[in-house]
Structures are given as structure tokens and as C-alpha cells.
Amino acid sequence: MLIHSAPRRAAAAAGALLAALLLVLTGCSTGGGGKGSSSGAHRPSATATAGTGASGTSGTPGWAKGMPTVQTGRLPAEAQHTLKLIDAGGPFPYPKDGTVFGNYERQLPKEPRGYYHEYTVPTPGSRDRGARRLISGKSHETFYTDDHYRTFKAVLR
């Protein structure tokens, strides 16, 4: 029995290594505007949009670090509008929009202070800024929270 299981284990290990290699190569080819990018607009490649839904990670770009994802078109209309303002560089309706996001909750990938900036996503009926935010990184990655930083979804654009 041990003699017959060794080839199966070797085949399973080889398959797992091949799958991991494909994931690494796919993640490396998604573009996504690296740190040297001079464009102010967030334009990751279309290959970064394969993972959808609240927990989709298949085809997720490397910067999302395995977190839940959401397609831009599945965000609330107010969040889609805020994304357009971010891409245009403003003007923003709230004084705190564009300020440094400290990532104190450590829910986003670890980066130096000043890497992330936050933007308010208006909440209809709320008397204040509400709990919804978009966070953008210097490499143009974007994250959405609707519970005031407790949880995030990587926005696939």
C-alpha cells in the first residue's frame, strides 16, 4: 500500500506546485500601476477583476492579500460616485476626504504611514459622515468599508 501511495502523493504535490506557480504568475501580470506610476487615475488591468462577490479570491490581485473582493459595479451608487471623484482628483464634499488613513485597525496590508488616504462614501439619511469609506493606496489599490473600518473589501476595477 505504501508503494502505491507515493506516486499519488508526488502527483498531488506537483499539481499543488503548478497551481501555486500559476497563481504567482497571474498575480504578477495584473499590472495595477506600481509605485513608480505617474498616473493619478486608478486603472488596474482587466485581469484583476476575475474574483467577485463578498469572498471571491480567485483571480484576486496580489495587493488584496486574500481579502474579500467587490466589483466596482456592485458597490453602492454613492461609492461609485466617490470613486469617480477620487479618479478626477476632487473636489470632495467632506473636509476629511483625502486625509491620511492610519490603518490602526491593521485590516489592510501593512504599509508606511501616509500610504493610504480615506474618502467618505455618503450614507443616505445619515446626519454625519456615516460609516462608509473608500481607502486608496499609493499604488492605486482601493478598499471599501461599510462598517467604519471593521472589515474591508478590495475593490476590483
From TrEMBL:
Keywords: Hydrolase, Nuclease. Pfam families: Ribonuclease. Residues 45-60 have a biased composition (Low complexity). Residues 32-73 are annotated as: Disordered. InterPro entries: N1-like, Ribonuclease/ribotoxin. SUPFAM superfamilies: Microbial ribonucleases (SSF53933). This is Ribonuclease N1.
